[in-house]
Amino acid sequence: MSGELKIGEINRIFQAADEKGMLPAFIREYREDERSGVQKLIAKAQKKLDAIEAEKKRMIVMSEFEQKYKDFHCICGIDEAGRGPLAGPVVAGAVVLDPEVEILYLNDSKKLSAAKRDELYDEIMEKARAAAVGIVEPAVIDEINILQATYEAMRKAVQGLGIMPDILLNDAVTIPGLPMKQVAIVKGDARSKSIAAASIIAKVTRDRIMVEYDSQYPEFGFASHKGYGAASHIEALKNFGPTPIHRKSFITHFQLGQPKYQ
Predict the structure, then answer these.
(1) Domain membership flag for residue 36
(2) Are residues 6 and 86 in the same domain?
(3) Domain annotation covers residue 219
(4) Rg (Cα) of the chain, in Å, rounded?
(5) Counting beta carbons within 10 angstroms of the beta carbon of residue 240, is it exposed (0 to 12), middle (13 to 18) or buried (19 or more)?
(6) What is the tens place of the pLDDT at every residue in 211-241?
(7) What is the pLDDT of residues 63-108, one digit of tens each?
(8) pLDDT, tens only, 133-164
(9) pTM metric for this prediction
(10) Separation between Cα atoms, residue 213 and residue 57, nearest integer Å
(11) Which domain holds residue 148?
(12) 45 within domain boundaries
C-alpha cells in the first residue's frame, strides 16, 4: 500500500506523525517499504524514538529527590536567576510539578538554548500544578545585599503559588523565614526536575525583563548580555554612566561616565 505513495508524500506523513507523537505507528505502517528513501525516514523515526526513550530515562534520574520525598503532599522546586549581573532584578522561580504529567528535557537553564527555554517555559506554565516568580529590584538589592534579596525573591515566589508547599527543594540554599521543610541540593538545577523547572521560569522571566529594558536604554545592549559584565556593558558604563536599573553596589569599582539616564 505504501508503495503507491510518492516518497515526498510519505515524508509529509512522517513530519505529521512526529508532531503528533505517532512515530511508532508510522514505523509499523511503512517499515516494509523497501525504497531507500522510505527506509531513511524509518531510520530517522527510530532515532527520534530512541532519543525520547533516553530522555525519559534521564528524567527518571532527575526525579530522584521527588521520589525520595513523594510522601509529602506538595513538593516545590526553587531556583533563581540574576545574582551576578551588574544591572536588573534578581528573579526567583517556584514550581510545583504534577507527578502524573510528563515534561521532558527539563535541565539547568544554563544548559539549554534560549529557544528551548522559551518552549519549556510555556510547557511548564501549562502543565505545572502551580508556578510563580518573585522579583526584587536593583534598589532593594543595593539596600539589603544580593543574598538577602535572593531570599526575598524566593519567598515572594513561594507566596505567589496560590497553594502552600509542605517541602521545598532548593538549589543549594536554605531560605530564612519559611515554615516548611527545606532540602538544599548542591547543583540542584541539574539534579531535580522541580528545581530545573524553577530555574527555567526564573531565567526566561528575567531575560524578558532585560529585553524590555534594552528598548529603554539601547546603548547598553541589555538584550544580548542581560546585564552581566560583558566588555560592551563595561564600555557603555564608561561612556554613558549608570542607568536607574544598575546595581550601585555592584559597579563601585568601575570607571563610570556622566549618567545619561537619571
Answers:
(1) yes
(2) no
(3) no
(4) 23
(5) middle
(6) 999 999 999 999 999 999 999 999 999 999 9
(7) 999 999 999 999 999 999 999 999 999 999 999 999 999 999 999 9
(8) 999 999 999 999 999 999 999 999 999 999 99
(9) 0.90
(10) 40
(11) 71-206
(12) yes
Output the 3-class SS for the chain.
CHHHCCHHHHHHHHHHHHHHCCHHHHHHHHCCCCCHHHHHHHHHHHHHHHHHHHHHHHHHHCCHHHHHCCCCCCEEEEEEECCCCCECCEEEEEEECCCCCCCCCCCCHHHCCHHHHHHHHHHHHHHCCEEEEEEECHHHHHHHCHHHHHHHHHHHHHHCCCCCCCEEEEECCCCCCCCCEEEEECCHHHCCHHHHHHHHHHHHHHHHHHHHHHHHCHHHCHHHHCCCCCHHHHHHHHHHCCCCCECHHHCCCCCCCCCCCC
Q: How far apart are CA 5 and CA 157, in angstroms?
A: 54
Which one-letter amino acid corresponds to residue 29?
E
- Number of domains present in the structure of the chain: 2
| 112 neighbors 200 (Cβ within 8 angstroms) | yes
